[in-house]
Design goal:
Blueprint (H helix, E strand, L loop, with lengths): L4 E4 L3 H12 L4 E4 L4 H6 L5 E2 L1 H10 L3 H6 L1 E3 L1 E6 L2 E6 H5 L3 E3 L2 H14 L4 E2 L2 E7 L7 E6 L5 E6 L2 E4 L17 E16 L8 E6 L2 E9 L2 E8 L10 H12 L13 E15 L2 E2 L2 E3 L5 E2 L7 H22 L3 H28 L7 H16 L1 H12 L7
Parallel strand pairs: 1-2, 1-12, 2-8, 5-14, 12-19
Antiparallel strand pairs: 3-7, 4-7, 5-6, 9-10, 10-11, 13-16, 13-17, 14-15, 15-16, 17-20, 18-19
The chain binds 3,4-dihydroxybenzoic acid.
3,4-dihydroxybenzoic acid binds next to strand 15.
């Protein structure tokens, strides 16, 4: 088996890359370790930056997004019993789109299959080899533990296989720098069959911790609360979740009421930051979670993955067309500029809005001071809004 680009991982990064490469006349094979149903039902974040929306339009995966996605002009920060609106549209001229990663992934899969282009599910990658040569390869087993073993030869391998995927290990350990931060709390996330209580997202620093009110549609609420690390989602009764959300979102003037409804999904997400450098070794390029993880606050994970593959598709398109390596050589540095900006933004949003259980009062005052500054300064709000809606490459 042979292709131009072997893509390990059929999440949004790998699939989007395959589409962008196709538009540039470059062939690829996408190998995904999980079955299709698993990829299509995984609950992740739901905010698309302007640039991510553009990329979905470019590849033609925009029809359902335009029909069902919810454009948002702003969001609210809530603390000390009051709210501050950040009007992204007014401050930056751009808005974001609420459209779940799960739906993005479904559309990218359907489009790939419509094109009749190779996308292999249940393909467990056993080894990524020879990335220091001009003919790297990927060995994989297809269809379970007694499935057949294949070797896919390529000009380039892209590791878009998440933070626990095998691709990253093909870079020799002594060449890798790894940066990591583990946060001392997790998110308990719910989906509920009830209309959102606010027409925009609300990020709250409540007395007992963070809460986020989001949505998936006009009739489905998505919400999160900060919980201790190691929390079992089933240890939280539905009513206790609603009570806690209600307390954390409460406004002093009593003007906010949280609507409750049947909870259809509960899960706990740990929070960490991770960056591995470089994002390229020889003919192996890493993209998305394989190279970096951000905590969910601010929803940068998917957007970073799409930003990576936009840069990478440009670079590989150029190289296959002309053999000019300039963009390819710049890929890691270019992508990492955005990765570090988003890592800082996600860290800022996280630490500003969560209550650290180890309770340093100094940190608490810093967080409140940052919120006060955002409340009183338009330039502080603009800086936050620019990061939230995503920055252009030149502004990173
Ligand atoms: C959602 C998740 C986020 O992390 C965020 O910042 C905003 C929205 C969500 O799942 O809807």
């Amino acid at each position: 088996e042979r292709t131009q680009v072997a893509i390990v991982g059929g999440g949004p990064a790998g699939l989007m890359l395959a589409h962008l490469l196709r538009l540039r006349g470059v062939d690829s094979v996408v190998l995904e370790s999980r079955p299709r149903e698993r990829v299509e039902t995984r609950q992740r974040a739901g905010i698309l930056e302007h640039g991510t929306v553009e990329a979905l339009r470019e590849v033609g995966a925009d029809a359902r997004m335009d029909e069902l996605g919810l454009p948002h002009d702003g969001f609210e920060l809530r603390f000390a019993g009051r709210g501050v609106r950040v009007d992204m549209q007014e401050l930056t001229g751009e808005r974001v789109m609420i459209w779940a990663q799960t739906e993005v992934t479904k559309d990218l899969i359907a489009l790939r299959l419509d094109h009749g282009e190779p996308l292999v599910f249940d393909a467990e990658v056993l080894a990524v080899s020879d990335v220091e040569t001009d003919s790297p390869s990927v060995r994989y087993r297809h269809g379970g533990s007694d499935g057949e073993v294949h070797v896919l030869h390529a000009d380039v391998v892209v590791g878009a296989d998440g933070s626990y995927g095998p691709s990253r290990r093909a870079i020799p350990e002594h060449l890798v720098r790894r940066f990591e931060r583990v946060y001392p709390y997790s998110w308990l996330g719910i989906l509920a069959d009830v209309a959102p209580s606010s027409h925009e997202l609300v990020y709250a620093r409540g007395r007992t911790g963070f809460a986020l009110a989001s949505m998936r549609s006009p009739s489905v609420t998505r919400a999160y609360i900060q919980v201790p690390n190691g929390t079992d989602p089933q240890s939280w009764a539905d009513e206790a979740i609603w009570d806690e959300l209600s307390a954390r979102f409460a406004l002093d003037d009593g003007s906010f009421t949280l609507s409750r409804g049947p909870i259809t999904d509960k899960s706990v997400t740990p929070m960490r930051s991770m960056v591995t450098e470089p994002m390229r070794h020889g003919r192996l390029f890493l993209a998305g979670d394989a190279a970096h993880i951000v905590p969910p606050t601010g929803a940068k994970g998917l957007n970073l993955a799409v930003a990576d593959v936009r840069v990478l598709a440009e670079a590989l398109g150029e190289w296959f067309a002309t053999k000019d390596e300039t963009l390819m050589d710049a890929y890691s540095d270019t992508a990492l500029r955005r990765v570090w900006r988003a890592s800082h933004f996600s860290w800022t949003m996280t630490t500003m809005l969560h209550v650290d259980p180890d309770g340093d009062p100094f940190d608490e005052q810093l967080a409140l001071s940052h919120l006060h500054h955002i409340e009183s300064s338009e330039s502080a709000r603009r800086a936050l809004a620019e990061n939230y809606r995503g920055l252009a490459l030149g502004a990173l």
